[in-house]
Amino acid sequence: MSITATELKMNLSKYLLLAATEDIYITRNGRTIAKLSNPYQERMDIAKSLIGILPADVTLEEAEEERASLL
Questions:
Q1: Widest CA span of the chain, in angstroms?
Q2: How far apart are CA 7 and CA 49, in angstroms?
Q3: Paired strand residues for 32
Q4: Alpha-carbon distance values, 16 to 8, 33, 49, 57, 62 (Å)
Q5: Residues 54/60/63/68 CA torsion (nearest 10 deg)
Q6: From CA 40, how far away is CA 20, in angstroms rounded?
Q7: Per-residue confidence of the chain (71 residues) as pLDDT tens digits?
Q8: Sign of the C-alpha dihedral, residues 35, 37, 42, 46?
Q9: How many Cβ atoms from other residues are within 10 Å of residue 26's Cβ?
Q10: Residue of 45, 49, 40 lying closest to 19 (CA atoms)
Q11: I need a surface site. Which of 4, 25, 41, 65 has the fewest CB within 10 A?
Q12: How many CB atoms lie within 10 A of CB 25?
């Protein structure tokens, strides 16, 4: 999403909440001057990529045992 610096000033709390889910590029005079983003986005992407790796019928204990056997 791209917004002007003036828009950011007028609605800062709104854009701080949005920054948790998407990058926000701030422009001034048509040029991008800053980027507002979630500092933990990389962690969130990694966690999302792991969803669905284990079958639904596997218990946590079984997964831990399998992991331990690989080490």
A1: 59
A2: 34
A3: 27
A4: 9, 17, 25, 39, 40
A5: 150
A6: 9
A7: 999 999 999 999 999 999 988 999 999 999 999 999 888 877 777 777 777 676 777 787 887 888 788 77
A8: negative
A9: 19
A10: 40
A11: 65
A12: 13
Reading the block at residue 53, the tokens are 């790796």
Strand 2-4 relative to strand 24-28: parallel, antiparallel, unpaired?
A: parallel
- Report whether 38 contacts 21 (CB < 8 A): yes
Number of Cβ within 10 Å of residue 7's Cβ equals 15
Joined together, the tokens standing for residue 42 give: 């990389």
Q: How many Cβ atoms sit within 10 Å of the Cβ of residue 14?
A: 12
